[in-house]
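Researcher: Structure for this, please.
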Amino acid sequence: MLRRRMMWLTLFVGLDIAAFFYWRWRHEHRFDAPIRAAAARYGLPPALVKAVVWRESNFDPDAVGKAGEIGLMQLMDEAAHEWAGAMKLQQFGHEHVFDPGTNTLAGSFYLAKLLRRYTGTDDPLPYALADYNAGRGNVLRWMTGPARTNSSAFLAQMTYPSTRAYIAAVTERYARFRGEFR
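Model: Predicted structure, token format:
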């Protein structure tokens, strides 16, 4: 009798673990198609876009930030409207970026713009991610002396530990997704 109960318990625990991993896999991959499309459109690695989506919203298309950021890539109104203007979209509202396809397109447009902004550095990624997270004004404040072009000096000079942690988290997840998201 005890042996039979242990067998059933083991079976149920195994099914729970399998269900959890399936849910996690499904959760992380359900927006792969719009992420790939947006990344291709703006010349970005899809794994980078996915890493930003992971960090910004944990794949929740309905996420709303404290400052009014919306959707998967947590876009501010100004960034969303900049994309809409570049695409010549009429009657565009910030609420349109709740749509995962629209959000990843607008967010990828903005991220690509930020990466181009820092091409004179040894590694534009930390600068672009800092800009995405903390804003251009803070990045300019941190870009003094060697930090103007040296990403290690830039990270050391950064006064927001949360932005440094954001960059580290996105960079680590980008490396992980690069291996599994091709």
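Researcher: Any notable elements?
Model: Residues 2-29 form the longest helix (28 residues). The domain at 32-180 is CATH 1.10.530.10 (Lysozyme).
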